[in-house]
Amino acid sequence: MTATCPTRPRSAHADRFQMRAFVSLLLIASGVLVIGSGIVLLLAPSGRLAFAGGWSALGVDRQGWIGLHDVFGLLWVPLLLAHAALNRKPILCYLKDRVRKTFAVRREALAAVTLTVLVATLVVARVVPVAQLLALGGHGMGR
Questions:
Q1: Where are the domains positioned within the chain?
Q2: Which of 7, 51, 117, 142 registers the highest number of CB atoms within 10 A of its CB?
Q3: How many CA atoms lie within 13 A of 25 on its CB side?
């Protein structure tokens, strides 16, 4: 598969700070932290058991993991907006129908939105596989 969108040639100012690269790499690093802290919190004991027993993982207690998870999760919002703004041309090029030269809903976008709505519905409806996963982390689905 060949790219139809032109790539930007490397400028004479290649040594200056590259904001697109910075935002993309920070987005990846933050995502790794959110995923990692989410897994730790899912497997960690919750409530009094975590606090009374002095539970920690990698030298960080439960409150520390919650803080990491929350702060880096919230950091995703401005990072995603910055990423979308800095990459708007490639994103728009990706969404453009190559034949008609107009914007179109692509199968991939439709599939991504459908999967997101399906998973969100399963979580809210407390369907068994999701309820069991959340119960594993002590987030009781209280049905």
A1: 19-88, 105-143
A2: 51
A3: 6
